[in-house]
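hey team, just a heads up i'm posting the complex here instead of the shared drive bc the drive is being weird again. everything in one block, sequence lines first with there labels, then the predicted structure for the whole assembly after. its two chains so it's a bit long, scroll down
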Amino acid sequence: MSHVNTSDWYNSLRQELECNSLSIEKVSRRSEYWRKSNLDIVSDLVQEISETDLINLNGTHLYEPELTIVGDIMELASGKSYKISSIMDEIADEGSFTKNYFGKLEEKSQKLVPRPLARDNSLSPKVGYALSLPESSKKPLVIHNKTKTSVNNCFQRNLIIVNKGVEATIIETGNNLSVFNSVTEIYLDENAKLNYLDLTGENNIFPKISHKFCDMAEKSTFNHFGLRLNTKSTRNEIELHLNGPGINTSIANVSLINKKHHFSDENVLINHNAYECKSRQVFKSVLENDCTSIVRGKIYVAPEAQKTDGYQSSRSLLLNENSRFLCKPELEIYADDVICSHGSTSSSLDKESLFYMLSRGVHKEKAKEMLITAFISEALDEIEDEGIKSALSNYIDIWTSNFFHE
Amino acid sequence: MANMLNIDDLKVSLEEEEKQIIKGLSLSINPGEVHAIMGPNGSGKSTLSSVLAGKDGYIIDSGTVNFDGSDLLEAEVEERAALGIFMAFQYPIEIPGVGNMNFLRTALNSQRKTRGQEELNAADFLKLVRGIAKDLEISDEMMKRPVNVGASGGEKKRNEILQMCLLEPRFVILDETDSGLDVDAMKLVSKGVNNFSSSSRSFLVITHYQRLLNYIVPDFVHIMVDGRIVKTGDKALALHVEETGYKDFLQLGKEKH
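-- predicted structure starts here --
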């Protein structure tokens, strides 16, 4: 850290956090929260690879990015409509507004489960943005991440503050060509609403761990949609703190994985700390070619969180025998007037449906694709914005049309 | 005139248990003919329709099935559809998440593609399907739903007939299409079938009861017992069954063993 200019407040925070840091090696061996996860570096894959990612598929641009982060360099598109600063500048500034936010949610996230990689990130961030949203915007903020092979262990640190009554949408895309570790701390004020779409495309051949920790005030809304297309070894961590009444949140994820031994790993912890809050979790994984998808989804309901409505559904389609869906739904409830449910299923494609479609002349691959599209539609339906939803489902349709042609 | 469908001494077993269901069945159907197969439960009628449509789970022990001179049993399910074979399901499948219109259009265009024909564009397709739906009194709302989801038994059967009219097969198997239909629905379905029939199309109507045959009048009636056709006649045979039941024929089945 010696070469990085840092403020006194950051230095003292860093000292405090460093005393309680953990090593991932120790944790992964003894903690069930980390067992089965696969964040090994695949050394034989260290090479430049083609730049296909979710922004650009077959020459079709899904979105134009406003903020591009290449390795440890941030580039803002001209004519930006957002107030974005570099987190590295902020932690060097004694009077920075980030002082009251930085590290607070990371620290809180260590309470129930150990997250050593989030702690590492707090200790040595390399790049990232601080974003304060004082006004609503219809136009989504598109952030494109590209790490370079020359940058090892890229630690990206972000802070998002959504002010009272403000609505915003963030779309994050990209790929990583080196180990990538990100922590995004998100603060939602009263009645604030954030839609976050985290689209992880192919060619994430390096381990990627991404954390999002979110503090939510009264009547705020956080909708998160994750898309994982042939991720190699990614792990996503989301922890939400529902701190005021009337909060709404939806976490949905679609994993489509058919490259040998590829992997997706979704971990969600929703802390219901206040009454009359609603949370939904919908996970859909389609796995072929010996792939694995992990889903750990936990709903925690504090004694004061009466009238909680918590829903969780995690379902997988296993298209070959050695693909695996490892699902651990958890409910921890200390209030007595709540509705909480969870369900998990694994199945192959429905033979009767397939036969019916074939008997009408639909080609086999096409019929399978249609059934996959149908299977994931429940998760896509969690996206509120019809425009984004239809762009994404068209995109997924194009992608899925090659699902059986590996 | 060459046979359209020619089944010769067909023997079929279940894949999962070693049990022969069809035990030497022969049947020839010419273009324009309507054949009915009647028989008691467990006689193998539905197995026959499943085997013709190409469903998994059966082993062909011996015999041949030719359609237009080519070996039907070698063809994949979707190839049979493109050849012009259509089975109206006894229990049409619900497919949540797959829109009815999308399904119909994909099916039609897949068949056209297999046959080397040009695909139908969205506007022409809509016009075509709306016309058929109107004749069968199928609502727009039903067309917008996922395939068969939330449909009543009668609506599902009408949807089958709609698919038939749209896909224009040359050989149609109606597998107990009358089951679960009230009189009005049966009339509507029969009207759809009769309007669709022509001198180049053939039907195989599988049913327990004679009543459907009042509306779809067969040229031939076959009684199937224990995996074989034990008697063939005209529509009078169906009326006879209605009066006396299958007991006379059960005896015939045993004698043939």
